[in-house]
Each structure stands twice: as structure tokens, then as C-alpha cells.
Prior knowledge:
Elements: E1 9-11, H1 19-22, E2 35-37, E3 51-53, H2 66-81, E4 93-101, E5 105-112, E6 132-139, H3 140-145, H4 149-159, E7 170-175, E8 179-184, H5 192-199, H6 204-223, E9 226-227, E10 236-238, E11 244-246, E12 253-254, E13 263-265, H7 272-276, H8 283-298, H9 308-317, H10 328-337, H11 354-357, H12 367-371
Antiparallel strand pairs: 1-13, 2-3, 4-5, 5-6, 6-8, 7-8, 9-12, 10-11
Amino acid sequence: MSNNQRFRVSLTIKQKLDERFQRLQQIDHTHFFLTYAPMGSGPSSSSSHPTLTSSSSSTPNTIIHHDLYKQAREEFDTRYGTPTTFSLNYRDFQIIRPLGRGAFGSVKEVKYAREPVPDYLQSHDNPSKSYHVALKIINKKSAHKMKQEEHVVNEKRILQSLHFPYIIRFYFSFKDNSNLYIGLELIEGGELFRHLRDCEKFEEKKAKFYSSQIILALEYLHLLGIVYRDLKPENLLIDRHGYIKMCDFGFAKKIDRGKAYTLCGTPEFLAPEIILGRGYNMGVDYWALGVLIFEMNAGYSPFWDADQQKIYHKIINGKFRPRSAFSENLVDIVRGLLQKDLTKRLGMMFNGINDIKKHAWFRDLDWMQVFLKKTRAPWIPDIRANNFPDAEDEEPSRSSVNLYEKEFHDF
């Protein structure tokens, strides 16, 4: 399936998908709890990122430490509640190349072209690329037309508040009369989607490598009270060292212990409770994780169909057929994640995400090594190659009037 065939839907629960879906009984959520554990020794650049574990964990090198959880929450809440302002404009940057286009904007590699260079643009991971960033350009008019004002503003607020090894780094944001701009870490290896398409499918060991990083990123987000809601290969970039970077937080939402009700995401990755439209929480990310693990190992989605309504029916029924080549442990973890009953879905039970991390499919994995990026990447992208072949360059629109000033006031 091509990238263009994957489309995003954003509907409210008032818009019915199908009368049959509305007659299905909603399954109650169960509460789960997790606590933080300190990192101990390791590189100083990573020591500020706490790892996460449940109080029943017996994972080596993890110790319960409530203070680190409290510190991470306080830092997030401070940045989320008091956004930083930046004195920048589009003319401060030299355009290097286009990286991609979205429904209402584009992404370009740019280089800061003024002196002196702000400290926040220094690249520690790749000094030769200092001052180079991925500039996400969002057209106000298009975002307004698609009623995405809240999602756009929310994405910026969440991104500027996060700090985790497997989540794309936020550098700055600014706006002008026509557009909104977000400066992000430049990730040069392309999308996981493209790499999966080139390989057709991954060996289990390779899928496990990527899955482990995604799980840690979800663990971090969930402990901050954030549900991601758009996990798919297109939203996972591969950096120059072969590691994952989660990007595109347009559908992410801070719900803490509450529920969300908006139907949003990508059809093949939607959890049953999203389609049912009666409220959901972090469990939808674990369902999407199950779809992703299946797709990486099979090369196709467990619920794919050319007819979108049939996709929804398959998801509601929860029936899929694993490939015969799947190992027993792979089949078990996928079935545990693609569990309609939330009281039985991996990640949503008493031990929380540790039921996933301790699953037999990950038996040979050292989670501390994963966190510290000390596991060897199975594939290193050639960053000299064109890893964004479908990108088209387009000059941002200009307006003499400040468009939708009220709607984007908080950006």
C-alpha cells in the first residue's frame, strides 16, 4: 500500500460510522499504574531521561524512585504551561532541500543563516549539521479550513515540553501572517514506512529492535498523561545511527487519567474503542503497537482491506490471521495487544506496560541497553542518499494581513 493511500480521519463521536458499531457493548477500562526508576550510571546526556517500570518489576538495574517521576512531570508541566517565545522569522534561514509535504503544510531542511547562532541550535549528535533543522511549515488557511487549529497548537505545546531519546527534539517555533513554523531535530534516515516498503517485511529480531524503542517512548508519554493516537510507520523516522525517532504529534493529547472522545488517527491502526466512540485512554496506543508489530513482521496490516468500512468491521470483530512464519511468542504478543477486552489487553492490566516489556518475545532484550542506545542497530541508513524522494519544494504563501490571529493566538 502506498503512502498516499494512508489517509487520516478526524471526526467527532457525533458522526456515526455505522449503526451496527453503535449497538456493540462498550468494555470498561481498567486502571493501571506505573512508577519511575532512576537510570543509574550512563552517559550524562542520557541521565536526564528516567526509565520507567512498575512497582512489581524485577527488571535488572531498575529501582523504584518516585522523585524522578515527580521531577519529570514537573518539568513537563512547566514547559507545557509556560511556552517559550522565539524571536525568529523565515528569512533567518537558508533553504537546503524539501523533506516532505502534509495535508496543510510542508517540511524543509533549513540552516540558520544569521550570527550569532543561538545555543539551542547547536547539534551535539552531529556537529557537522549544527544549525541545520527540519522546519515544519503549517499554512494557517489550510489548517483552519480543515478545522485543525486545536491540533496544531496542541502539537507545538506538547513537542516543546518533551525530552526523550526516541522522540524528535523540538528547537523553536514562530509564526507570521500566513504560516506557523516549528523547528525540529533533523532526522536524515527517512521514514520507517519507506524502509519497511523497501524490505517488504522485517525479520523478527529487527522488528523487535524498533518495537522496543517505540515501547519506551510510549511509556514516557503515558506517564506524562499523553496519549499519542497516531502510531504508524510513517510517523517513525530513522536517525543516522539507525534508531527510531517518533514524530508528528498532531493527534497527541494530554488526558492524564481522563478519556478522549475524538475519532482520529489512521483507519488500519484504530482501536475498537475509538471506533465505538464512547471514550478511550492509553490503551489505544497499545492496540496500535500490536498492529505495527504485526505489519513489520508480515509486510501488511492485520486488518487491511480496500474498503474502509470493512477495515472497521474487522477491527471491531478483532479477528486476524497471523502468518505461518510468525514465532509462537510473536503470535502471543500480537494477540495480547490486539485484545478487544481492555481488561485483558497487554499494557492495560495491573502491571501496566511491564506486561509488554517482560513478555517472552522480549526475553533476550536488556531494556537498560535499549534506553541508553547501546543495542546495535540492524540497519544504518545511507544519509548521502535521497531518503525523501517524494518531497516537492514549494515556497510558503505570503499575506499582508495576519490571518486567523485569534485562532492561532496560543501558538
